[in-house]
């Protein structure tokens, strides 16, 4: 893929995202002028405001202005928080990143070994168990599982902390710097805070981790089956290498290239999955921000959040594609 | 020399598996039989089929099966635990949860059915036209498909429903808008493999228009992989619809939509957990059924991929 073609892909995809959010913003049945002024404003004022908001311009010019605004980070003001949407998103996004990252780590750490096990012991009982675990992960509504696990692990067993990100006790003694609380607490050597953060994050992260586990283990199994029937495996066996070495050193190593793409995609999936999970766990991230804004018909915030999640999603897609091309010599142009 | 070499009587099975089918019907039935045999070897796939047949049955006979009204409750009997009279207990308005689940199956079928009816033909059309036409038509259509493919589905559906206004029709529309791109991709890939084959060339020589070739000769060939993909997507569609319902953007009260039922049960989750547990279990079972069926269909229709 030439550099030019790559750039065209990136630019059109982002423009497409903005076109869709622009379109969504236009189909709202509420007149944006009346939303600002209320329905008792005199006609002259309504007309003047309409003009000032650029709503009299042709659609393509409106879109142009919209793209320019979005590129400079102007998503308008949130009705709910009265802050610029970008500022709100900057504040809440680290919480989502933190959750999705821990979730992906859990998913990959468990999913890859399970997938390898399933492939090596193909059609055995272990394979079936891994398959069923994965299938349930694909089929269960995440918010329901989140509610039930909250009842079990918080209300009944008291193993984890109540919904939220950090205990109210630490709200004042702990001053985060980067917004990534786990890193901040470790950096400041506040071990009691770190433990409390862990008790809050472990349940939502495990749930997200389960979803990425379902995906990662299934793909790992498929990639490993593909590698294990290659001829270099026969050669390695003929050389007398141990089975452990063949599986983990040779087969998995070759399966690792497509696996990285899978992990990146599952990370993007978790950013999206966080929307429902965060509402259950009162996790103050982008997902909760979007759902709160939805309940209050705060469209600027909803669309701003959509653009940010969409952009990260697209960026991860492109990144994993590039990584795949770099790591796998077969995909390089001859 | 007598000509009486013994020919065993032709069983129905032999007729189906014949190498030289005498008619089109025989060939078709034979193929269906082979697929069914491969499919029915897979026990999990049969479980999936059973679950979906049960769902269809429950939805069709909801009026007969449901012991109580799904809408009318008795407020004096709110939040009763499961018992012989109310198998899954009652909700906060005293409505029988089992009856609501039974009627809710209709909404689930409505959502997956309509999304499939809207999204699959759109994807099929875009993909086959793109693959057959090639050139700049292909470039533009695939660029649009890729753009939609790159979006996070749930978030886009959320924003769309938020703009259109909550309701089951808008939820269905939003899910359909985000569901068609993979179908276009699959249909295009299939079309590319058929495009230069001899029989398409033969049809072309007979003077068939591109329109006819795509509609009558290419689209039918794309159907099997499309059906598999749509079946596998059904679970995701159900989960997205339930998520929208849970956030209050899907079916509106008093409709017994399963996701919305979980949302209303959420308030009593600590003391009356069954109110939220039952509809979630229903969602899990149905989407598991679709996943099992889709897996089985894929293995049966495309043995290359079997077990992967």
From TrEMBL, chain A:
Q: Which domain of life is it from?
A: Bacteria
User: CDD domains under this entry?
Assistant: TM_PBP2
GO molecular-function terms, A-Z: dipeptide transmembrane transporter activity
Q: Where in the cell is it found?
A: Cell membrane
Q: Where is the ABC transmembrane type-1 domain?
A: 93-324
What InterPro entries does this protein map onto? Answer: BPD_transp_1_N (IPR045621), MetI-like (IPR000515), MetI-like_sf (IPR035906)
* Main location, first listed in the record: membrane
| Keywords, in A-Z order | Cell membrane, Membrane, Transmembrane, Transmembrane helix, Transport
Q: Which family does it belong to?
A: Belongs to the binding-protein-dependent transport system permease family.
State the protein's name: ABC transporter permease
| Organism expressing this protein natively | Ferirhizobium litorale
UniProtKB/TrEMBL annotation, chain B:
Instruction: Report the residue ranges that make up the ABC transmembrane type-1 domain in this protein.
Output: 105-294
Where does this protein reside within or beyond the cell? Cell membrane
GO BP terms: namely:
peptide transport; protein transport; transmembrane transport
Keyword Coiled coil annotated: no
**Keyword presence, Membrane:** yes
What keywords does the record list, in alphabetical order? Cell membrane, Membrane, Peptide transport, Protein transport, Transmembrane, Transmembrane helix, Transport
Enumerate the transmembrane spans: 44-66, 107-133, 154-179, 227-252, 272-294
- Name the principal localization, coarsely classed: membrane
- Cross-referenced InterPro entries: ABC_transport_permease, BP-dependent_transpt_permease, MetI-like, MetI-like_sf, OppC_N
This protein's GO CC annotations: plasma membrane
Q: Which domain of life is it from?
A: Bacteria
Q: How does it sit in the membrane?
A: Multi-pass membrane protein
State the CDD domains in the record: TM_PBP2
* Family label: Belongs to the binding-protein-dependent transport system permease family. OppBC subfamily.
**NCBIfam families linked to this entry:** Opp2C
Q: What is this protein called?
A: ABC transporter permease
> Which source organism?
Ferirhizobium litorale
């Amino acid at each position: 893929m030439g550099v030019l073609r790559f750039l065209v892909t990136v630019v059109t995809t982002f423009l497409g995202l903005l076109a869709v959010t622009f379109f969504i913003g236009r189909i709202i049945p509420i007149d944006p002028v009346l939303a600002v002024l209320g329905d008792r404003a005199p006609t002259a004022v309504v007309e003047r405001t309409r003009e000032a908001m650029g709503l009299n311009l042709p659609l393509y010019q409106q879109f142009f202005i919209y793209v320019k605004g979005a590129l400079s980070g102007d998503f308008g003001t949130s009705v709910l928080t009265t802050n610029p949407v970008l500022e709100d998103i900057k504040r809440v996004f680290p919480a989502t990143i933190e959750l999705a990252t821990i979730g992906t780590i859990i998913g990959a750490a468990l999913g890859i070994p399970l997938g390898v096990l399933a492939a090596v012991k193909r059609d055995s009982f272990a394979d079936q168990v891994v398959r069923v675990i994965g299938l349930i992960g694909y089929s269960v509504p995440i918010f329901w599982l989140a509610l039930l696990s909250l009842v079990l692990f918080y209300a009944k067993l008291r193993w984890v902390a109540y919904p939220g990100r950090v205990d109210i006790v630490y709200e004042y003694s702990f001053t985060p710097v980067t917004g990534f609380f786990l890193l901040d607490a470790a950096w400041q050597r506040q071990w009691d805070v770190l433990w409390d953060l862990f008790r809050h994050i472990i349940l939502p992260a495990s749930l997200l981790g389960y979803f990425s586990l379902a995906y990662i283990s299934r793909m790992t199994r498929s990639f490993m089956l593909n590698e294990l029937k290659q001829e270099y495996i026969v050669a390695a066996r003929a050389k007398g290498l141990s089975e452990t070495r063949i599986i983990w050193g040779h087969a998995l190593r070759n399966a690792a290239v497509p696996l990285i793409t899978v992990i990146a995609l599952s990370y993007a999936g978790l950013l999206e999955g966080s929307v429902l999970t965060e509402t259950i766990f009162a996790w103050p991230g982008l997902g909760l921000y979007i759902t709160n804004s939805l309940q209050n018909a705060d469209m600027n915030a909803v669309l701003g959040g959509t653009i940010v999640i969409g952009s990260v999603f697209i960026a991860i897609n492109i990144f994993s594609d590039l990584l795949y091309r770099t790591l796998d010599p077969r995909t390089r142009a001859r | 020399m007598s000509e009486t070499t013994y020919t065993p009587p032709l069983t129905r099975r032999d007729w189906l598996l014949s190498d030289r089918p005498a008619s089109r019907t025989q060939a078709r039935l034979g193929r269906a039989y082979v697929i069914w045999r491969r499919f029915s070897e897979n026990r999990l796939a049969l479980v999936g089929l059973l679950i979906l047949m049960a769902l269809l049955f429950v939805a069709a006979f909801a009026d007969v099966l449901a012991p109580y009204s799904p809408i009318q409750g008795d407020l004096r009997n709110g939040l009763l635990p499961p018992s012989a009279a109310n198998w899954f207990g009652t909700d906060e308005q005293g409505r029988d949860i089992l009856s609501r689940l039974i009627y809710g199956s209709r909404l689930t079928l409505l959502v997956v059915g309509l999304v499939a009816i809207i999204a699959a033909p759109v994807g099929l059309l875009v993909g086959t036209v793109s693959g057959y036409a090639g050139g700049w038509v292909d470039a533009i259509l695939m660029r649009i498909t890729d753009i939609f493919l790159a979006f996070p589905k749930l978030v886009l559906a959320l924003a769309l429903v938020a703009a259109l206004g909550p309701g089951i029709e808008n939820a269905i529309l939003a899910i359909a808008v985000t569901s068609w791109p993979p179908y276009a991709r699959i249909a295009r890939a299939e079309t590319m493999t058929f495009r230069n084959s001899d029989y398409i060339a033969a049809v072309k020589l007979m003077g068939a228009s591109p329109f006819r070739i795509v509609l009558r000769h290419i689209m039918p060939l794309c159907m099997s992989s499309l059906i598999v993909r749509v079946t596998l997507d059904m679970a995701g569609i159900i989960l997205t619809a339930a998520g929208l319902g849970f956030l209050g953007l899907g079916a509106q009260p008093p409709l017994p939509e399963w996701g919305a039922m979980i949302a209303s049960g959420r308030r009593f989750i600590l003391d009356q957990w069954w109110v939220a547990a039952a509809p979630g279990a229903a969602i899990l079972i149905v989407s598991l059924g679709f996943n099992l069926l889709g897996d089985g269909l894929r293995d049966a229709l495309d043995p290359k991929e079997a077990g992967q």
